[in-house]
# Entry
Amino acid sequence: MSSSVLATLVAVVFVSAFVQGALGIGFALIVAPVVGVLQPGLLPVTLLILMLPLNFHVAWRERASIDWVGARWITAGRLVGTFAGLWLLTALSGHHLDQAVGWFTVIAAAAALVAPPFAATPSISQGVGLFTGITETATGIGGPPLALLYQHTNGPTLRATVAVCFLIGEIMSLAMLAISGKIGSSQLLSALYLVPAVLAGSALSKLTHGKIGGNGLRLSVLIFALLSGAYLIVK
# Structure
């Protein structure tokens, strides 16, 4: 990796960690497209590694607001989705996988704009966990479904619950990728270079996260979901 590419990734990772620390989502949606263009071989492994300290920090910071019941149901679905995501990573072309994930995300976000508030029931939570396990293991992007599930909750609950679900899921995905021999030394070294930017951006988000919530947070979540889905469709 050249010094110019590394500098670009450091800046992007820093900004993305700040965004996710403030809103609860956004890291993978911003970082994945840039990494895909500059260093595609780092996906999804380096992205998953970088999200470990970020989501641990956010979950710990607002741990009192975690929806543990919902997180357990999401994790149950996520476990199955991780195996499916690993299979898709080898069975489908990147184009077909991106199209499927992109269209689902756009349709879900568009429907959420007009849908009335709904509860995160066990069946819905399991379904979201399943889909997130598939998409994050295969592409590194899993935020939109979780964010849509918690879009009607308060800011601390959304951020903390999404973070703890991410954290557990990323450990699952990385374990499966390691067992299947899909983690290389270059991906680990790149993650090591970029971790300080993650920590700095996440720490800075403490200045703003308490001011973000309500309709502004929900609108931000839906915009992020629409943009991420559109990116996957057109790329």
Q: What stands out?
A: The chain has one domain: 3-234. The chain has a mean pLDDT of 84. The two ends are 23 Å apart (CA to CA). Residues 155-179 form the longest helix (25 residues).
